[in-house]
């Protein structure tokens, strides 16, 4: 099903005070659309700042890897505080990164750790790399992370295991989000690089979601094994700019993607499915040319939710922690132009609805769930704050007279 956008009067939002730089915790107040029951406020505090961060990933020891678009990988230690929140500890640099093509939406992108990191030390990076002439394309590399005693480390044995095909001009819609699935496969979102038609071309891996083995080889049970080497990588096609991929507790993959002028999407990703872009979309081209809606061509998989006005979704988690029990199984989406955190509730039958929206007061780039079930958010841009979201402090009982 497709949910139409709520009227503007219904888009009341939660205003979050993100706290001063000394890390003091400030509580949020809440308001939500009439049809959505608010789950209560959370508290947010600043932990650190980064320049143009794009992604983060926790190591098993609780330290945090953070990518910065210009081509830096930082390692942040976190120190527990008595109230259960965290303060920034040592901040180190990881060396040995590949050359990145920085500019526009390009640069160093996602970072994830291998499910067997404790034994193999492998981390995976996505980034934009230069090609011939003025061309660029996304790539994924893996390497062994070797930590030192000074709070930093280096990457060893870096090897590119996947590339966008073909490299094209322009600096947009790389997508290059990474996720490991429950079965250990590596999933990659590949944007259509603002070139439209490659999303439907099986000789290209642009505008697709890819499923690979952890070494970059192609699983034999992918849906298109007989259509060529590039097509064999493909799990689904007809995507635009996919900046969020995540699995729910049942192993179902979900993605969100930016629509053109209107029509941001949340999709239930199915094996071999075509999501229609650029043939259909619930938005239109930026020059005003209309694009037929999904319901005009039902052979293409329609989004579960669309947003117009857009939220500019930038990252996605499906919550599984204990800190916010009312949100278990919900999707949490960060928004750029909407400067928001959007909570989506699933109905158990493949449907979903926007349940709540929180005004974060800043373009939000990334969200991750931390080891204690706290939520960690990165703002976008220079001097961007790393925020930790925690349950609000328990109310203090009034003193007896």
UniProtKB/TrEMBL annotation:
InterPro entries: 6-blade_b-propeller_TolB-like, Glc/Sorbosone_DH, Quinoprot_gluc/sorb_DH_b-prop. It comes from the Bacteria. It holds the Pfam family GSDH. This is PQQ-dependent sugar dehydrogenase. Residues 1-23 form the signal peptide. Keywords: Signal. Residues 50-387 form the Glucose/Sorbosone dehydrogenase domain.
């Amino acid at each position: 099903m497709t949910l139409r956008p709520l009227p503007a009067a219904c888009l009341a939002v939660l205003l979050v005070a993100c706290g001063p730089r000394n890390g003091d915790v400030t509580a949020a107040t809440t308001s939500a659309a009439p049809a959505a029951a608010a789950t209560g406020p959370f508290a947010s505090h600043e932990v650190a700042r980064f320049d143009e961060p794009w992604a983060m990933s926790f190591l098993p020891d609780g330290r945090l890897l953070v990518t910065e678009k210009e081509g830096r990988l930082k390692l942040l230690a976190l120190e527990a505080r008595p109230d259960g929140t965290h303060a920034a500890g040592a901040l180190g640099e990881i060396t040995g990164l590949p050359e990145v093509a920085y500019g526009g939406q390009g640069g160093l992108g996602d970072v994830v750790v291998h499910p067997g990191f404790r034994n193999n030390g492998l981390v995976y990076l996505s980034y934009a790399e230069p090609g011939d002439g003025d061309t660029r394309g996304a790539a994924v590399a893996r390497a062994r992370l070797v930590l030192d005693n000074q709070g930093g480390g280096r990457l060893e044995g870096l090897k590119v295991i996947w590339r966008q095909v073909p490299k094209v001009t322009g600096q947009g819609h790389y997508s290059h989000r990474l996720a490991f699935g429950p079965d250990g496969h590596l999933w990659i979102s590949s944007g259509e690089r603002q070139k439209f038609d490659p999303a439907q071309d099986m000789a290209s891996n642009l505008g697709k979601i890819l499923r690979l083995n952890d070494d970059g080889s192609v699983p034999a049970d992918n849906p298109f094994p007989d259509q060529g080497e590039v097509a064999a990588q493909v799990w689904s096609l007809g995507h635009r700019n996919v900046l969020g991929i995540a699995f729910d507790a049942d192993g179902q993959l979900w993605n969100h993607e930016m629509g053109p002028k209107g029509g941001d999407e949340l999709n239930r990703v199915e094996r071999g499915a075509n999501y229609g872009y650029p043939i259909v979309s619930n938005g239109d081209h930026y020059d005003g040319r209309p694009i037929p809606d999904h319901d005009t061509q039902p052979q293409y998989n329609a989004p579960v939710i669309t947003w117009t006005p857009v939220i500019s979704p930038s990252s996605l988690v499906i919550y599984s922690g204990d800190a916010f029990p009312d949100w278990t199984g919900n999707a949490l989406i960060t928004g750029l132009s909407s400067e928001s955190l959007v909570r989506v509730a699933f109905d158990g039958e493949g449907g979903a609805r926007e349940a709540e929206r929180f005004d974060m007061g800043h373009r939000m780039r990334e969200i991750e769930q931390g080891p204690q079930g706290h939520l960690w958010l990165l703002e976008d841009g220079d001097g961007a704050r790393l925020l930790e979201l925690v349950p609000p402090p328990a109310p203090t009982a009034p003193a007896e007279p």
